[in-house]
């Protein structure tokens, strides 16, 4: 997954084609590293264009609800690229930045603040 995440900005079409597999790994794989890199992969691909962002944002939002605190900072960081490529979606991800700006974990607070800055 690390290699796929590294290459994902260069091959967003292939990432979109494999979205179901990547999403499955993100939610069900027992390895935290695989989950981390799945989220990073999606964030990298989403930052390539508005079409990719629209397809990936629902998966990241689902991750916020289902994956728990351990992955919040990664998920919020993945949304930063979406804010940069889609003004329409920036308003939506801005809300998540504000929601998590006062989270108890400092890493989540930092990611939320970066997301707010990117979305404004």
Set out the fold topology.
Layout: H1 2-7, H2 12-17, H3 19-28, H4 32-46, H5 50-66, H6 72-85, H7 87-99, H8 106-119
What would the keywords be for this entry?
120 residues, mainly alpha, 79% helix, 0% strand
What does this structure look like?
The chain has eight helices and no strands. It has helices spanning 2-7, 12-17, 19-28, 32-46, 50-66, 72-85, 87-99, 106-119. Helix 4 (32-46) packs antiparallel against helix 5 (50-66), helix 6 packs parallel to helix 8 (106-119) and helix 7 (87-99) packs antiparallel against helix 8 (106-119).
Q: How much β-strand is present in the residues? A: under 5%
Which secondary-structure class do the elements indicate?
mainly alpha
Major pleated sheet = none
The helix-strand sequence is HHHHHHHH
Task: Give the rounded overall mean pLDDT.
Answer: 95
Q: Stretches where pLDDT falls below 50 for ≥5 residues?
A: none
CA-CA gap between termini: 31 Å
Q: What would the principal axes of the Cα set say about the shape?
A: globular
Short description:
The protein is mostly helical. It has helices at residues 2-7, 12-17, 19-28, 32-46, 50-66, 72-85, 87-99, 106-119.
């Amino acid at each position: 997954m690390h290699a796929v995440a590294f290459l994902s900005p260069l091959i967003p079409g292939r990432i979109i084609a494999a979205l179901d597999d990547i999403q499955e790994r993100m939610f069900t794989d027992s390895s935290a590293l695989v989950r981390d890199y799945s989220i990073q992969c999606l964030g990298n691909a989403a930052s390539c264009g508005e079409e990719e962002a629209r397809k990936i944002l629902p998966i990241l939002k689902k991750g916020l609800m289902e994956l728990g605190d351990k992955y919040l900072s990664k998920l919020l960081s993945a949304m930063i690229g979406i804010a940069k490529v889609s003004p329409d979606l920036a308003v939506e991800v801005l809300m998540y930045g504000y929601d998590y700006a006062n989270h108890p974990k400092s890493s989540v607070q930092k990611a939320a603040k970066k997301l707010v800055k990117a979305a404004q």
